[in-house]
Each structure stands twice: as structure tokens, then as C-alpha cells.
Specification:
The protein is an alpha+beta fold. It has helices at about 15-20, 35-50, 60-80, 85-90, and strands spanning about 25, 30, 55, 110. The protein is about 40% helix and about 15% strand. Helix 3 (about 60-80) crosses helix 4.
Length: about 110
């Protein structure tokens, strides 16, 4: 796997990428295999240091990212925004499908338990 890649709205992931990524499970979430192994080490070291971390979000499939996008845009439209304004607002914090680093399996959002 090529770990040096730029993923954003101007540089989306090619659809064939999803067939090439090897995933591994870490605490109920999925990550690219090597990144997942490193994440396990990080979580173990943090716990040894008295820090209990939880995985909030990790790998997201194209379909899951699409569902998140549509759900958030719909939510904003139900709140009274036009489609265009809803897309603009959601786009500030959520990437389009194929444009999220989470789609690579290399990104993880962590939080602290407790």
C-alpha cells in the first residue's frame, strides 16, 4: 500500500482503492492493517501510562461516508437550510465520500474514556 497519498475534495480516492486496502479490527473498528497494528501499540502504551483511550471513528467505506453525508445534509435541511446552504455547512466538518482520509483506513478519531 502506498502510505503517501493526498486525500481531499480535490484529490478523491480512486474506486479501485477499496479493493486493495487490507483491513484489521481494532477494538470493534477497522483500520488499514499496518495502521491498525500501530494503533494497537499506541492504545496499549497509553493504557500503561494510565490513559484509557477509545476509538470514536476509524475506517469508513464509501457507502458509509455517503450515508453520513446524506444524513447530515438532510438534518440541516430539516432545520430550515436550503440544499446549497446545507451542503456548504456540512462540508465544513464532513468530507464527501471518497474525499475523507477515513476512507483510506489510515485515519482514526480518538477520545478519552471517563
Amino acid at each position: 500500500m502506498d502510505y503517501l497519498m493526498l486525500v481531499d475534495k480535490f484529490n478523491p480516492i480512486d474506486m479501485g482503492f477499496y479493493d486493495r486496502v487490507e483491513l484489521t479490527e481494532v477494538n470493534g473498528k477497522f483500520m488499514e492493517a499496518q495502521a491498525g497494528n500501530r494503533l494497537r501499540l499506541l492504545l496499549k502504551k497509553a493504557e500503561a501510562d494510565g490513559i484509557k483511550l477509545k476509538i470514536i471513528s476509524a475506517y469508513r467505506s464509501f457507502e458509509y461516508q455517503q450515508m453520513l453525508w446524506e444524513r447530515e445534509v438532510s438534518h440541516e435541511m430539516w432545520g430550515g437550510l436550503s440544499y446549497e446552504k446545507a451542503v456548504e455547512k456540512v462540508g465544513r466538518t464532513l468530507a464527501l465520500p471518497g474525499s475523507s482520509e477515513h476512507n483510506t483506513g489510515l485515519a482514526v478519531d480518538l477520545g478519552r474514556e471517563g
